[in-house]
Specification:
The protein is α+β, with helices and mostly antiparallel strands. Helix content is 62%, strand content 7%. The strands form 4 sheets. A 4-stranded antiparallel beta sheet has the order 2-3-1-8, with helices on both faces. It has a two-stranded antiparallel ribbon with strand order 4-5. Strands 6-7 form a two-stranded antiparallel ribbon. The chain is globular and about 85 Å long. It is a multi-pass membrane protein.
């Protein structure tokens, strides 16, 4: 369409196929040649790259090709009059563009790509009733009429992977303005992040940036309370600190909901702000990744279900979720709780610091293994549930796995705080969890994927050198960056990539940190300062991780942070915070009052022993 400005076309999808062993002359109807020709017929820009072990097909789509695919999908977009209407390529000027000036967001482009490379290719075969035989080296593949070419090659193991590619121009811009921009501590180019990674990742970084900015106030308050001698005003300032952080938490979540709504309006996303399965278009979920053949069948066949059948399935789903939740809760109580209490008790009674360190090392290795097993079991249980969508399944996984990590993170601290009331040990444990654990987690989550990538790269080069023993000596290098991206690990969760991406671990770390600083702030007021410093570093390390260490993540169109918001602001959670903070504030105020009245440190120690 001539009225629509042409956008810069970049390669955004990579298809991995085996590298040819035989010469080109030995193939008369090769799989790769047919696949490339079909991609070009549907309007895609194709570039073939030979790697050390595999061959890569890079795909790009002009805006016209994407527009026609969006029209076939009847993708709903915002118009200039404020209404959401199905997209039509002939009326493209009537639709509002994205904040970066492009016609389609990354999530919309990704679904258009999938529709093109799966659905459009399959329709090109319908013109012929005969079966076409495709050859590759000594193998033959039968391409039947009406069958999706790419899906057929995936099922037969010829196409190894289809994954999003990094756009080098935009990636380098984000590295300069985001990952390496250390002067702006909490400011981030959220619109650019949304345009490059999609809604869910941009929402996470918007939440992390806002949380880090808001936490600066209690951080300054806590440091002042800890290191400044306020004299007789100390007894009044500590309860004021407790009340202020409670009000701070309530205000923060209310302002976050407003900011989230503003972001959705700016990104032209029509979806509920409350936690839900994610917004939909044409009655189908954007979060579900399925082939367009199944997509069109599901869309075209609108079967009306009987009311009784619907109610029966709904109740069966609820019973399955209740059964799985009960199983997880009983497992936590019967298995994990005794283990955590045993560790906390041994840590309290052991006198040697060296033995405490050894016990902590053994505990950390054991608990990581137990949590990984619990996460795998949770994923298996969720597969048996009758969830309405992938996002509902992901939310169910969040609740189950968070229970495991909640027990691991807090039961030892509650043990020291409630049973022994040893504030020195409690502060030592808090410092260990806030500083040592979070620093180690940041190092592990960035170093382990990089080591995996380095090992894959080394193995590929080593195999190449073994095959070419007679070649001249020299350093074997990758021909293109696309092979490096293929060897990088995927951005997936530690419990499995079936239901959640890597944001699961990032949100889990943030939720555990928030609970720790809220429940034990009065015992250790500088905890907010440690959390603020960690979050400032977390913004840059997570940005570097997404831009350098991992493959470009598959976009997900969740409109909010989902179940994590419920975990952050659960009424029972807030009630427990208030009770815990009030108990600790009263205990500390009583001891400080005794110290002020007596003026003698020995008397304070004696009173502590009597208690």
């Amino acid at each position: 369409m001539g009225n629509v400005e042409e956008e810069q076309t970049a390669f955004e999808i990579g298809v991995v196929v085996p590298r040819r062993v035989l010469e080109k002359g030995d193939e008369c109807c090769g799989c790769v040649e047919v696949l490339v020709d079909e991609f070009r017929k549907v309007g895609l820009v194709v570039d073939r790259v030979l790697g050390i072990q595999e061959e890569f097909i890079k795909l790009a789509a002009p805006v016209e090709t994407l527009g026609r695919a969006a029209a076939e999908l009847q993708l709903t977009k915002r118009t200039h009059i404020g209404m959401d209407l199905p997209f039509e390529w002939d009326q493209a000027e009537a639709f509002v563009r994205q904040p970066d000036g492009s016609l389609f967001s990354w999530c919309e482009r990704f679904h258009c790509y999938r529709h093109i490379i799966y659905g459009v290719v399959s329709r090109s075969v319908n013109k012929s009733d005969s079966t076409l035989t495709l050859k590759f080296d000594c193998k033959e593949f039968q391409w039947e009429s009406g069958e999706s070419l790419l899906q057929m090659l995936e099922l037969r193991g010829f196409v190894k992977q289809v994954f999003p590619l990094h756009d080098e121009t935009k990636r380098k811009q984000l590295l300069r303005s985001w990952a390496f921009n250390c002067w702006d501590f909490t400011r981030q180019p959220i619109d650019e992040i949304y345009a490059y990674f999609g809604t869910k990742i941009a929402t996470y970084f918007a939440f992390l940036g806002m949380f880090t900015r808001w936490i600066l106030f209690p951080a300054v308050f806590g440091v002042t309370l800890q290191f400044v001698d306020l004299g007789s005003m100390q007894l009044l300032v500590l309860p004021a600190f407790f009340i202020s952080i409670t009000i701070w938490a309530v205000l923060f979540f209310q302002f976050w909901k407003r900011k989230n709504s503003a972001l959705l309006a700016r990104w032209q996303i029509s979806g509920p702000v409350a936690g839900g399965p994610g917004y939909k278009f044409s009655g189908l979920e954007w979060s579900s990744i399925q082939s367009p053949v199944e997509f069109m069948k599901k869309w075209g066949s609108e079967k009306t279900k009987d009311k009784e059948v619907f109610q029966r399935e709904e109740w069966v789903g609820r019973l399955l979720r209740f059964r799985n939740d009960a199983f997880i809760i009983l497992s936590i109580i019967c298995l994990q709780l005794p283990f955590e209490l045993a560790y906390a008790h041994l840590y309290e009674v052991i006198g040697s610091d060296l033995m405490k360190f050894g016990l902590t090392v053994v505990y950390l290795f054991a608990i990581q293994y137990f949590n990984r097993i619990g996460g795998k079991i949770s994923v298996s249980l969720i597969k048996c549930e009758n969830n309405e969508s992938r996002e509902y399944g992901a939310d169910s996984l969040i609740y189950k796995v968070f229970g495991l990590y909640f027990m691991q993170s807090y039961i030892g601290i509650f043990y020291h705080a409630l049973l022994h009331r040893n504030f020195l040990t409690l502060r030592r444990v808090l410092i260990q969890r806030l500083i040592v654990s979070e620093v180690l987690e940041n190092l592990m989550e960035n170093s382990i994927p990089f080591l995996k990538y380095s090992y894959k790269k080394y193995s590929a080069i080593r195999k190449k050198r073994k095959r070419e023993k007679g070649s001249p000596a020299g350093k074997t290098q990758f021909i293109s960056r696309v092979e490096k991206e293929y060897l990088k690990p995927s951005y997936s969760a530690s419990v499995g990539e079936e239901l959640e991406d890597g944001l699961f671990d990032d949100f889990l770390e943030l939720a555990l940190q928030f609970g720790m600083i809220m429940m034990f702030a009065c015992a250790f007021p500088p905890a907010f300062a440690f959390a603020a410093l960690n979050n400032i570093a977390e913004i840059r390390t997570d940005a570097l991780k997404l831009l350098v260490v991992f493959k470009r993540p598959t976009p997900r169109a969740a409109a909010t942070i989902g179940a994590w918001l419920n975990i952050f602001q659960e009424p029972a959670w807030v009630r427990a915070n208030r009770l815990k903070n009030a108990t600790q504030a009263q205990d500390m105020c009583s001891k400080q009052l005794l110290r002020t009245i007596s003026g003698n440190e020995k008397l304070f120690v004696r009173v502590g022993k009597i208690e």
